[in-house]
Amino acid sequence: MNNYHCLSDFFVFAFYIPVNSLKCYQCNSLDNPNCLTAHLEPKECVGEHKEAKFCVKSIGFLNKGTLVIRMCGADYSIKNSCRPHKMEEGSLTNVCFHTCNDDACNSTQHQTPLIHLNLSSLFLIFCKMLFDFF
Question: Which CATH number covers residue 28?
Answer without folding.
Answer: 2.10.60.10
